[in-house]
Amino acid sequence: MIETTRLHLIIGEQRHLEALARHKDELGLLLQVAIPAGWPTFPEAFALPQGTVITPSEWDGYFFIDPTEQVLVGNGGFKGAPDETGTVEMGYEIAPEYWNRGYATEAVRGLIDYAFTHKPVNAVIAHTLAEKNASNRVLQKVGMTFIADVADAEFGTIWRWGVSRNAYENRGS
Fold this sequence. Notes:
CATH architecture: 3-Layer(aba) Sandwich
Strand order of the largest sheet: 1-2-3-4-5-6-8-7
CATH class: Alpha Beta
Oligomer: single chain
Number of strands: 8
CATH topology: Aminopeptidase
Number of helices: 5
């Protein structure tokens, strides 16, 4: 679990994904939290093919829980372990009911902080739609900068953002 000031980021386990596949209310019962009506925006991120067994990893997905409010506010995490260059990719979503409350910035900062506690990680990247929006504003707030336009089969051009360990550790100094 990753803890921030207001959030607990809980690793998604097999039992969580199976509960969600049946109904998101079952996930809420398992996590002992309320699940917002507008979540998830991207249910395909939780697709678990029949018979698949997963082994939870710190480099996979997390549920973002506000323990004070006893509610799931979103999800996100990493798209795998660091690659040969020491880069990890992260992504996230916040339920629309919890937008504009600082949860995205806090969760993303928590994920980046966590990534950089691992020596092999030299950089963290993320991708957004190729337009000015709340997601790229969150990434800017946590110290990421625009790196490049990237061709994507589904969305056309997307934007790559990133922050190096050195830049993150020296931000604000």
